[in-house]
Write the C-alpha coordinates for this entry.
Amino acid sequence: MTENWVPIPRRTLGVVRERMRDEPVILLEGPRSVGKSTLLRLIAAETGSSVLDLDDLATRDAVAADPALFVRDDNPVLIDEYQKAPLVLDAIKAELNANGAPGRFLLAGSTRYETLPVAAQSLTGRLHTMRIYPLSQTEIEQHEPLLVERLYADPTEAVGSPESTTTRENYIERIVRGGFPMALQRGAASRSRWFDDYVRLTLERDTAEIVKVRQSSMMPRLLGRLAGQSAQILNMKKAGEDVGLDAATAQNYTKLLEAVFLIQRLPAWHKLQSGRASASPKIHLVDSGVAARLLRLTPEKLARKDPASLTEFGHLLETFVVGEVQRQASWLDGISAGHWRTYTNDEVDLVLERDDGAIIAFEVKSGSRVPGDDFRHLRRLRLLAGDAFLAGVVLYLGRKSYTMEDRIHVMPVDRLWSS
Protein backbone atom coordinates (compact mmCIF):
# COMPACT_ATOMS: atom_id res chain seq x y z
CA MET A 1 0.00 0.00 0.00
CA THR A 2 1.50 3.34 -1.05
CA GLU A 3 0.56 6.92 -0.28
CA ASN A 4 -1.08 9.03 -2.96
CA TRP A 5 -0.32 12.70 -3.41
CA VAL A 6 -2.79 14.51 -1.16
CA PRO A 7 -3.74 18.08 -2.12
CA ILE A 8 -4.90 19.02 1.40
CA PRO A 9 -2.28 21.38 2.93
CA ARG A 10 -0.84 20.10 6.19
CA ARG A 11 -0.26 22.33 9.19
CA THR A 12 2.61 19.97 9.98
CA LEU A 13 4.51 21.17 6.90
CA GLY A 14 5.11 24.59 8.40
CA VAL A 15 6.20 23.01 11.69
CA VAL A 16 8.70 20.77 9.85
CA ARG A 17 10.14 23.76 7.99
CA GLU A 18 10.53 25.70 11.22
CA ARG A 19 12.19 22.87 13.14
CA MET A 20 14.60 22.09 10.31
CA ARG A 21 16.14 25.50 11.07
CA ASP A 22 17.20 24.20 14.49
CA GLU A 23 17.47 20.41 14.33
CA PRO A 24 20.12 18.46 12.37
CA VAL A 25 17.95 15.31 12.20
CA ILE A 26 14.17 15.15 12.27
CA LEU A 27 12.18 11.92 12.24
CA LEU A 28 8.56 11.94 11.08
CA GLU A 29 6.92 8.85 12.49
CA GLY A 30 3.35 7.70 12.31
CA PRO A 31 0.98 5.25 10.63
CA ARG A 32 1.38 4.17 7.03
CA SER A 33 -0.64 6.12 4.47
CA VAL A 34 -0.95 9.10 6.80
CA GLY A 35 0.93 11.58 4.59
CA LYS A 36 4.58 11.29 5.65
CA SER A 37 5.76 10.61 2.09
CA THR A 38 3.79 13.60 0.87
CA LEU A 39 5.56 15.81 3.41
CA LEU A 40 8.94 14.48 2.27
CA ARG A 41 8.11 15.19 -1.37
CA LEU A 42 7.05 18.75 -0.55
CA ILE A 43 10.26 19.42 1.37
CA ALA A 44 12.25 17.83 -1.47
CA ALA A 45 10.62 20.15 -4.01
CA GLU A 46 11.42 23.18 -1.84
CA THR A 47 15.06 22.27 -1.17
CA GLY A 48 16.12 20.72 -4.46
CA SER A 49 16.56 17.33 -2.80
CA SER A 50 15.34 13.88 -3.78
CA VAL A 51 13.66 11.27 -1.61
CA LEU A 52 15.32 7.91 -0.93
CA ASP A 53 12.36 5.54 -0.66
CA LEU A 54 13.49 2.41 1.17
CA ASP A 55 10.19 0.71 0.43
CA ASP A 56 11.70 0.27 -3.02
CA LEU A 57 13.77 -2.92 -2.91
CA ALA A 58 16.48 -1.76 -5.34
CA THR A 59 16.96 1.50 -3.42
CA ARG A 60 16.97 -0.37 -0.13
CA ASP A 61 19.62 -2.82 -1.30
CA ALA A 62 21.82 -0.02 -2.62
CA VAL A 63 21.56 1.97 0.63
CA ALA A 64 22.20 -1.12 2.75
CA ALA A 65 25.29 -1.98 0.70
CA ASP A 66 26.90 1.46 1.09
CA PRO A 67 24.87 3.75 3.36
CA ALA A 68 27.61 6.39 3.65
CA LEU A 69 27.33 7.05 -0.09
CA PHE A 70 23.73 8.22 0.27
CA VAL A 71 24.02 10.54 3.27
CA ARG A 72 26.60 12.96 1.85
CA ASP A 73 24.85 15.82 0.10
CA ASP A 74 24.84 19.60 0.20
CA ASN A 75 21.04 19.49 0.15
CA PRO A 76 18.98 17.96 2.95
CA VAL A 77 18.97 14.15 2.83
CA LEU A 78 15.39 12.82 2.86
CA ILE A 79 14.82 9.12 3.59
CA ASP A 80 11.42 7.42 3.58
CA GLU A 81 10.86 4.22 5.61
CA TYR A 82 14.39 4.51 7.00
CA GLN A 83 13.87 1.53 9.32
CA LYS A 84 14.07 -0.82 6.31
CA ALA A 85 17.86 -0.23 6.27
CA PRO A 86 18.76 0.79 9.83
CA LEU A 87 22.50 0.81 9.02
CA VAL A 88 21.84 4.18 7.44
CA LEU A 89 21.54 5.59 10.97
CA ASP A 90 25.18 4.76 11.67
CA ALA A 91 26.18 6.58 8.49
CA ILE A 92 24.11 9.60 9.53
CA LYS A 93 25.76 9.59 12.95
CA ALA A 94 29.21 9.63 11.33
CA GLU A 95 28.16 12.56 9.14
CA LEU A 96 26.84 14.47 12.15
CA ASN A 97 30.16 13.99 13.94
CA ALA A 98 31.77 15.88 11.07
CA ASN A 99 28.96 18.38 10.42
CA GLY A 100 26.00 18.76 12.76
CA ALA A 101 24.41 21.75 11.01
CA PRO A 102 20.60 22.11 11.25
CA GLY A 103 18.37 20.72 8.54
CA ARG A 104 20.72 18.01 7.28
CA PHE A 105 18.45 14.97 7.54
CA LEU A 106 14.70 14.40 7.40
CA LEU A 107 13.60 10.80 7.95
CA ALA A 108 10.19 9.16 7.90
CA GLY A 109 9.15 5.80 9.34
CA SER A 110 6.04 3.73 9.97
CA THR A 111 7.33 2.03 13.12
CA ARG A 112 8.40 3.62 16.38
CA TYR A 113 12.09 4.40 16.62
CA GLU A 114 12.16 2.88 20.11
CA THR A 115 11.18 -0.53 18.70
CA LEU A 116 14.32 -0.83 16.58
CA PRO A 117 17.00 -3.15 17.96
CA VAL A 118 19.18 -1.34 20.48
CA ALA A 119 22.15 -1.67 18.12
CA ALA A 120 20.21 0.30 15.48
CA GLN A 121 19.27 3.17 17.80
CA SER A 122 22.51 5.01 17.08
CA LEU A 123 20.88 8.45 16.94
CA THR A 124 19.29 8.35 20.38
CA GLY A 125 19.72 11.79 21.90
CA ARG A 126 20.44 13.41 18.54
CA LEU A 127 17.08 12.84 16.89
CA HIS A 128 14.07 15.16 17.05
CA THR A 129 10.91 13.08 16.63
CA MET A 130 7.64 14.47 15.28
CA ARG A 131 4.48 12.39 15.40
CA ILE A 132 2.46 12.57 12.18
CA TYR A 133 -1.20 11.82 12.75
CA PRO A 134 -4.07 11.33 10.31
CA LEU A 135 -5.50 14.58 8.97
CA SER A 136 -7.22 16.76 11.55
CA GLN A 137 -10.62 18.28 10.92
CA THR A 138 -8.99 21.73 10.84
CA GLU A 139 -6.78 20.55 7.97
CA ILE A 140 -9.69 18.92 6.15
CA GLU A 141 -11.80 22.08 6.49
CA GLN A 142 -8.81 24.47 6.18
CA HIS A 143 -9.98 26.47 9.18
CA GLU A 144 -7.93 28.54 11.60
CA PRO A 145 -7.28 29.72 14.28
CA LEU A 146 -6.84 26.54 16.29
CA LEU A 147 -8.63 25.96 19.58
CA VAL A 148 -5.72 24.56 21.63
CA GLU A 149 -3.49 27.45 20.63
CA ARG A 150 -6.24 29.96 21.43
CA LEU A 151 -7.00 28.39 24.79
CA TYR A 152 -3.38 28.70 25.85
CA ALA A 153 -3.29 32.31 24.62
CA ASP A 154 -6.57 33.47 26.19
CA PRO A 155 -9.20 30.94 27.32
CA THR A 156 -11.92 33.56 27.79
CA GLU A 157 -11.47 34.96 24.29
CA ALA A 158 -11.54 31.44 22.85
CA VAL A 159 -15.06 30.83 24.15
CA GLY A 160 -16.86 33.40 22.01
CA SER A 161 -18.33 31.87 18.88
CA PRO A 162 -21.49 31.78 16.76
CA GLU A 163 -23.85 28.92 17.49
CA SER A 164 -22.85 25.54 16.11
CA THR A 165 -24.82 24.17 13.18
CA THR A 166 -23.23 20.69 13.26
CA THR A 167 -25.81 17.94 13.76
CA ARG A 168 -25.33 14.63 15.53
CA GLU A 169 -25.42 12.95 12.11
CA ASN A 170 -22.61 15.24 10.91
CA TYR A 171 -20.47 14.28 13.91
CA ILE A 172 -21.12 10.59 13.31
CA GLU A 173 -20.05 10.91 9.66
CA ARG A 174 -16.79 12.63 10.64
CA ILE A 175 -16.05 9.96 13.23
CA VAL A 176 -16.54 6.98 10.91
CA ARG A 177 -14.67 8.75 8.09
CA GLY A 178 -11.54 9.33 10.18
CA GLY A 179 -8.53 11.22 8.87
CA PHE A 180 -6.52 8.97 6.55
CA PRO A 181 -6.10 10.89 3.27
CA MET A 182 -6.79 7.88 1.05
CA ALA A 183 -9.91 6.90 3.03
CA LEU A 184 -11.32 10.42 2.76
CA GLN A 185 -11.39 10.14 -1.02
CA ARG A 186 -13.76 7.14 -0.96
CA GLY A 187 -17.43 6.43 -0.49
CA ALA A 188 -18.65 4.40 2.51
CA ALA A 189 -18.35 0.88 1.02
CA SER A 190 -15.01 1.58 -0.65
CA ARG A 191 -13.70 3.19 2.53
CA SER A 192 -14.59 0.10 4.56
CA ARG A 193 -12.61 -2.06 2.14
CA TRP A 194 -9.68 0.34 2.41
CA PHE A 195 -9.74 0.15 6.22
CA ASP A 196 -9.85 -3.67 6.08
CA ASP A 197 -6.88 -3.80 3.71
CA TYR A 198 -4.97 -1.21 5.72
CA VAL A 199 -5.30 -3.13 8.97
CA ARG A 200 -4.54 -6.48 7.36
CA LEU A 201 -1.41 -5.27 5.58
CA THR A 202 -0.16 -3.42 8.65
CA LEU A 203 -0.55 -6.53 10.79
CA GLU A 204 0.88 -8.93 8.20
CA ARG A 205 3.80 -6.82 7.01
CA ASP A 206 4.80 -4.13 9.47
CA THR A 207 4.58 -6.15 12.67
CA ALA A 208 6.51 -8.99 11.01
CA GLU A 209 9.35 -6.59 10.21
CA ILE A 210 9.74 -5.82 13.91
CA VAL A 211 9.56 -9.31 15.36
CA LYS A 212 8.34 -12.75 14.38
CA VAL A 213 4.86 -13.21 15.83
CA ARG A 214 4.29 -16.77 17.01
CA GLN A 215 0.50 -16.56 17.03
CA SER A 216 -0.10 -14.12 14.19
CA SER A 217 -3.73 -15.20 13.79
CA MET A 218 -4.42 -13.74 17.23
CA MET A 219 -3.28 -10.23 16.31
CA PRO A 220 -6.46 -9.15 14.46
CA ARG A 221 -8.60 -10.58 17.24
CA LEU A 222 -6.60 -8.79 19.94
CA LEU A 223 -6.81 -5.54 17.99
CA GLY A 224 -10.58 -5.95 17.79
CA ARG A 225 -10.81 -6.46 21.56
CA LEU A 226 -8.65 -3.41 22.19
CA ALA A 227 -10.81 -1.38 19.81
CA GLY A 228 -13.73 -2.34 22.04
CA GLN A 229 -11.85 -0.75 24.97
CA SER A 230 -11.14 2.51 23.12
CA ALA A 231 -11.52 5.55 25.40
CA GLN A 232 -11.47 3.27 28.45
CA ILE A 233 -8.87 2.18 30.98
CA LEU A 234 -6.68 -0.44 29.34
CA ASN A 235 -7.52 -3.91 30.67
CA MET A 236 -4.75 -6.04 29.21
CA LYS A 237 -5.67 -9.16 31.17
CA LYS A 238 -9.25 -9.18 29.93
CA ALA A 239 -8.30 -8.44 26.31
CA GLY A 240 -5.81 -11.30 26.35
CA GLU A 241 -8.18 -13.74 27.99
CA ASP A 242 -10.92 -12.90 25.47
CA VAL A 243 -8.72 -14.10 22.60
CA GLY A 244 -6.92 -16.92 24.41
CA LEU A 245 -3.56 -15.23 25.07
CA ASP A 246 -1.63 -15.28 28.30
CA ALA A 247 -0.93 -11.93 29.94
CA ALA A 248 2.72 -11.70 28.85
CA THR A 249 1.95 -12.47 25.20
CA ALA A 250 -0.99 -10.06 25.16
CA GLN A 251 1.29 -7.35 26.56
CA ASN A 252 3.95 -7.99 23.91
CA TYR A 253 1.41 -8.02 21.08
CA THR A 254 -0.17 -4.80 22.35
CA LYS A 255 3.26 -3.15 22.25
CA LEU A 256 3.54 -4.30 18.64
CA LEU A 257 0.19 -2.69 17.82
CA GLU A 258 1.49 0.53 19.36
CA ALA A 259 4.76 0.21 17.44
CA VAL A 260 2.91 0.29 14.10
CA PHE A 261 0.60 3.10 15.25
CA LEU A 262 -2.70 1.27 15.25
CA ILE A 263 -3.33 2.02 18.92
CA GLN A 264 -1.96 4.45 21.47
CA ARG A 265 -1.91 4.53 25.23
CA LEU A 266 -2.92 7.81 26.84
CA PRO A 267 -0.82 7.84 30.01
CA ALA A 268 -2.15 8.73 33.41
CA TRP A 269 -1.48 12.32 34.43
CA HIS A 270 -0.61 12.58 38.12
CA LYS A 271 1.41 15.74 38.68
CA LEU A 272 -0.69 16.91 41.64
CA GLN A 273 0.74 16.52 45.12
CA SER A 274 -2.69 15.91 46.62
CA GLY A 275 -5.25 13.39 45.46
CA ARG A 276 -4.40 9.73 44.81
CA ALA A 277 -4.24 9.32 41.05
CA SER A 278 -4.47 6.06 39.15
CA ALA A 279 -1.41 5.12 37.10
CA SER A 280 -3.36 3.07 34.55
CA PRO A 281 -3.37 4.33 30.94
CA LYS A 282 -6.38 4.72 28.73
CA ILE A 283 -6.34 3.19 25.29
CA HIS A 284 -7.37 4.88 22.06
CA LEU A 285 -7.27 3.81 18.44
CA VAL A 286 -5.09 6.23 16.49
CA ASP A 287 -7.92 6.89 14.03
CA SER A 288 -11.63 6.93 14.84
CA GLY A 289 -12.49 5.65 11.37
CA VAL A 290 -10.35 2.55 11.88
CA ALA A 291 -11.95 2.06 15.31
CA ALA A 292 -15.45 2.27 13.89
CA ARG A 293 -14.60 -0.20 11.14
CA LEU A 294 -12.99 -2.70 13.51
CA LEU A 295 -16.16 -2.60 15.63
CA ARG A 296 -18.40 -2.71 12.54
CA LEU A 297 -20.10 0.50 13.67
CA THR A 298 -21.81 2.15 10.72
CA PRO A 299 -23.47 5.58 10.83
CA GLU A 300 -26.83 3.80 10.99
CA LYS A 301 -25.80 1.79 14.07
CA LEU A 302 -24.31 4.81 15.82
CA ALA A 303 -27.46 6.86 15.18
CA ARG A 304 -29.63 4.44 17.12
CA LYS A 305 -30.91 5.49 20.54
CA ASP A 306 -30.58 2.13 22.32
CA PRO A 307 -28.20 1.98 25.34
CA ALA A 308 -25.50 -0.08 23.57
CA SER A 309 -25.34 2.27 20.57
CA LEU A 310 -25.27 5.35 22.81
CA THR A 311 -22.38 3.89 24.82
CA GLU A 312 -20.41 2.96 21.70
CA PHE A 313 -20.97 6.41 20.25
CA GLY A 314 -19.76 8.04 23.46
CA HIS A 315 -16.51 6.05 23.41
CA LEU A 316 -15.88 6.75 19.72
CA LEU A 317 -16.62 10.44 20.21
CA GLU A 318 -14.03 10.62 22.99
CA THR A 319 -11.42 8.86 20.84
CA PHE A 320 -12.23 11.26 18.00
CA VAL A 321 -11.90 14.35 20.22
CA VAL A 322 -8.72 13.14 21.92
CA GLY A 323 -7.21 12.60 18.47
CA GLU A 324 -8.20 16.08 17.31
CA VAL A 325 -6.75 17.76 20.40
CA GLN A 326 -3.53 15.75 20.18
CA ARG A 327 -3.06 16.76 16.56
CA GLN A 328 -3.35 20.43 17.46
CA ALA A 329 -1.06 20.02 20.47
CA SER A 330 1.56 18.30 18.30
CA TRP A 331 1.99 21.52 16.28
CA LEU A 332 3.01 23.42 19.42
CA ASP A 333 6.17 23.10 21.47
CA GLY A 334 6.35 21.70 24.97
CA ILE A 335 2.89 20.16 25.48
CA SER A 336 2.27 16.68 26.90
CA ALA A 337 -1.04 14.85 27.17
CA GLY A 338 -2.60 12.42 29.63
CA HIS A 339 -5.83 11.57 31.42
CA TRP A 340 -6.60 12.13 35.10
CA ARG A 341 -8.31 9.53 37.24
CA THR A 342 -8.28 9.14 41.01
CA TYR A 343 -9.19 6.34 43.36
CA THR A 344 -12.03 8.55 44.60
CA ASN A 345 -13.70 8.40 41.17
CA ASP A 346 -12.61 11.77 39.83
CA GLU A 347 -11.93 11.50 36.10
CA VAL A 348 -11.02 13.96 33.34
CA ASP A 349 -10.77 12.64 29.81
CA LEU A 350 -7.75 14.63 28.64
CA VAL A 351 -5.24 16.93 30.35
CA LEU A 352 -2.72 18.99 28.39
CA GLU A 353 0.27 20.29 30.32
CA ARG A 354 2.67 22.89 28.98
CA ASP A 355 6.30 22.90 30.06
CA ASP A 356 5.62 25.83 32.40
CA GLY A 357 3.01 23.71 34.23
CA ALA A 358 -0.10 25.40 32.80
CA ILE A 359 -2.83 22.83 32.19
CA ILE A 360 -5.95 22.73 30.06
CA ALA A 361 -8.41 19.93 30.81
CA PHE A 362 -11.07 18.51 28.50
CA GLU A 363 -14.20 16.52 29.25
CA VAL A 364 -16.13 14.99 26.34
CA LYS A 365 -19.91 14.62 26.55
CA SER A 366 -22.07 12.99 23.89
CA GLY A 367 -25.26 14.84 24.85
CA SER A 368 -26.70 18.17 23.70
CA ARG A 369 -26.74 19.61 27.23
CA VAL A 370 -24.36 19.53 30.20
CA PRO A 371 -26.02 18.99 33.62
CA GLY A 372 -24.43 20.70 36.62
CA ASP A 373 -23.10 17.46 38.07
CA ASP A 374 -20.98 16.93 34.93
CA PHE A 375 -18.64 19.72 36.06
CA ARG A 376 -17.64 18.12 39.36
CA HIS A 377 -14.44 16.49 38.05
CA LEU A 378 -13.16 19.69 36.46
CA ARG A 379 -13.98 21.58 39.66
CA ARG A 380 -11.98 19.07 41.68
CA LEU A 381 -9.03 19.31 39.31
CA ARG A 382 -9.22 23.12 39.42
CA LEU A 383 -9.15 23.04 43.22
CA LEU A 384 -6.16 20.70 43.37
CA ALA A 385 -4.18 22.36 40.57
CA GLY A 386 -4.73 25.93 41.76
CA ASP A 387 -3.22 28.63 39.56
CA ALA A 388 -1.76 26.00 37.19
CA PHE A 389 -5.32 25.27 36.03
CA LEU A 390 -5.66 27.57 33.03
CA ALA A 391 -8.96 26.26 31.69
CA GLY A 392 -11.36 23.36 31.82
CA VAL A 393 -13.46 22.75 28.72
CA VAL A 394 -16.50 20.54 28.35
CA LEU A 395 -16.94 19.65 24.69
CA TYR A 396 -20.50 18.56 23.89
CA LEU A 397 -22.95 18.19 21.01
CA GLY A 398 -25.00 21.28 21.83
CA ARG A 399 -24.99 24.56 19.93
CA LYS A 400 -23.83 27.26 22.35
CA SER A 401 -20.44 28.22 23.77
CA TYR A 402 -20.45 29.77 27.22
CA THR A 403 -18.47 30.18 30.43
CA MET A 404 -20.04 28.16 33.22
CA GLU A 405 -17.93 29.60 36.04
CA ASP A 406 -14.37 30.58 36.89
CA ARG A 407 -12.04 28.97 34.28
CA ILE A 408 -14.62 26.36 33.26
CA HIS A 409 -16.20 26.65 29.84
CA VAL A 410 -18.60 24.74 27.59
CA MET A 411 -18.17 24.50 23.83
CA PRO A 412 -19.57 22.43 20.97
CA VAL A 413 -17.18 19.75 19.74
CA ASP A 414 -16.94 21.48 16.37
CA ARG A 415 -15.13 24.41 18.03
CA LEU A 416 -12.09 22.22 17.49
CA TRP A 417 -12.21 23.03 13.78
CA SER A 418 -14.72 25.83 13.16
CA SER A 419 -13.27 29.26 12.50
Q: What stands out?
A: Residues 1-6 have pLDDT under 50 and may be disordered. The two ends are 34 Å apart (CA to CA). DSSP finds 18 helices and 14 strands in the chain. The first helix runs from residue 11 to 20.
